[in-house]
Design brief:
two-stranded antiparallel sheet; Rossmann fold; 9 strands; 2 domains; about 350 residues; single chain; 15 helices; alpha/beta; Arc Repressor Mutant, subunit A
Length: about 350
């Protein structure tokens, strides 16, 4: 029998606890902007378009987008007619010729390892070592190690129990048959959804060594009759099953660059049957890229350690429309996350 906790929701709200962890690198990114790039002083002197900012500071596009979204959400930058300007708050406190300039206050933090990582990532667009470890790898390579994969999967598993419960009310699965949990890690989302929908079969699709970890955790939860594991790379077209009418990407796409995200969405569209359901569960930036602030802060740690970031609802909506998905809907879920659903057109 499935673990009864798979169908129980938490009775208290842990949002504040999540935000401390998720936003922990945002202060380091802001410090890098102030101390190492004097970003706000230079922008105050010359408001600029996104491309002009990238050229002037030698920033790569992905980290520049994360920094500008964070600064906008903090009320330090605003976009007017396509050009970014500092706000009165930034002009008074983050521009060097102001008597209230806080640059020296941040300078003592400028040599923190993660701050220095951000200086490199802003220009190279290459992920830093996970946790700023000097002898480590970026997240993608680290996941090839058994011990790291086990620890990381455990971390996402404990988070997933709460987040999956909040996802359930927003997914129309009563008429669905089989779910593919793409990059499903421990299988926690598949187990929760299967426990709520006894008719539903689920397949956790992930690479080694995560597949072995998932099999053990699924069995421990009593879900092996409904939830199986498929080992393989989700970038390998031939590895995708063709018999699933729901595809779930839960906290997966934010680890990858925009080109890779579009590739994965295209593979999903190709392998879904007509009328199949796509589910994207993420922390989403709003369409205007002005926030929300907790998601803009979370995007900093993703930009630091992975190839991705938090993408906006507008970015996802555009990619889904290009592929031919329809009936795109968005709902908030829990702790600054949300869910987008879309259908592959029926013949």
């Amino acid at each position: 029998m499935p673990d009864p906790f798979l169908t129980r929701r938490a009775t208290t709200d842990p949002t504040a606890i999540y935000r401390y962890r998720d936003g922990i690198y945002a202060a380091d990114l802001l410090t890098a902007a102030i101390v190492h790039f004097d970003f706000f002083t230079r922008l105050a002197a010359r408001p600029a378009t996104f491309d002009e900012i990238c050229d002037a500071f030698d920033f790569a596009a992905r980290p520049a987008d994360v920094l500008l979204t964070l600064a906008t959400a903090l009320g330090l930058v605003q976009a007017i007619d396509g050009r970014f300007h500092v706000t009165p708050t930034a002009r008074e406190h983050l521009v060097a010729d102001s008597p209230f300039f806080l640059g020296p206050y941040y300078a003592s933090l400028g040599d923190r390892p993660v701050v220095l990582d951000f200086v490199r990532v802003m220009r190279s667009d290459r992920p830093a070592h996970w946790g700023a470890a000097e002898d480590g790898h970026d997240w993608h390579r680290a996941m090839e190690d058994d011990d790291f994969a086990r620890a990381f999967t455990d971390a996402m598993d404990c988070r997933g129990l709460l987040l999956a419960q909040a996802l359930v009310p927003h997914l129309p699965l009563d008429d669905r048959r089989k779910l593919l949990d793409v990059g499903g890690g421990s299988g926690i989302y598949s187990c929760v959804l299967a426990a709520h929908h006894p008719h539903l079969q689920a397949v956790v699709f992930d690479q080694a060594p995560v597949d072995r970890i998932a099999e053990r955790l699924i069995a421990r939860r009593g879900c092996s009759d409904q939830v199986s594991v498929r080992a393989g790379s989700f970038f390998d077209r031939a590895a995708w099953p063709t018999d699933c009418d729901v595809h779930l990407f839960s906290n997966v796409l934010h680890d990858w660059g925009a080109d890779e995200v579009r590739q994965l969405l295209a593979l999903s569209y190709e392998h879904l049957p007509p009328g199949g359901l796509l589910v994207i569960h993420e922390a989403f930036i709003n369409a205007e890229k002005t926030g929300p602030l907790p998601v803009a802060e979370y995007s900093a740690i993703l930009m630091h350690s992975t190839r991705g970031k938090c993408y906006s609802t507008g970015e996802y909506g555009g990619w889904l429309a290009e592929l031919g998905f329809e009936a795109v809907l968005y709902h908030d879920t829990a702790v600054d996350r949300g869910v987008m659903t879309a259908r592959k057109a029926a013949r």
